[in-house]
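Lecture notes, part 5. Sequence design as translation. It can be helpful to think of inverse folding as translation between two languages: the language of shapes and the language of residues. The source text, in structure tokens, appears below.
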């Protein structure tokens, strides 16, 4: 089976698009029509102040420790996330993220975030 590189059907580790966005190193991995996968490479002390975006965001913690805050209509949620934990943030939901211990998180955004490409 041929790997299509230009259309990014398969993205090898060495071909991932690397970027620094608001002080955080990230690798844009597979980018489809309706979703994208990004690996966030966090360093202790990184944070994202309260913000929101139209993208639904689902994440899986590979390593590290993170404090996630979400302002949901019914209640505010604050939780510590560790390796193996996952989360789903609905689009347009105010949220913030603080890195307590360095590590990696895989995030899926739908639709794709053009500012990460």
């Amino acid at each position: 089976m041929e790997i299509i590189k230009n259309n990014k059907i398969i993205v090898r580790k060495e071909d991932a698009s690397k970027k620094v966005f608001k002080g955080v190193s990230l690798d844009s991995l597979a980018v489809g029509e309706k979703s994208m996968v990004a690996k966030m490479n966090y360093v202790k002390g990184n944070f994202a102040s309260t913000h929101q975006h139209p993208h639904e965001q689902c994440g899986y913690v590979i390593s590290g420790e993170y404090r996630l805050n979400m302002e949901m209509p019914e209640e505010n949620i604050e939780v510590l996330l560790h390796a193996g934990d996952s989360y789903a943030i609905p689009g347009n939901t105010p949220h913030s993220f603080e890195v307590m211990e360095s590590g990696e998180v895989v995030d899926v955004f739908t639709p794709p975030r053009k500012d990460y490409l």
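The translated text above is only one of many valid answers, since several sequences can fold into similar shapes. Strands lie at 17-21, 24-31, 36-42, 47-51, 56-61, 65-71, 76-82, 86-89, 95-101, 103-110.
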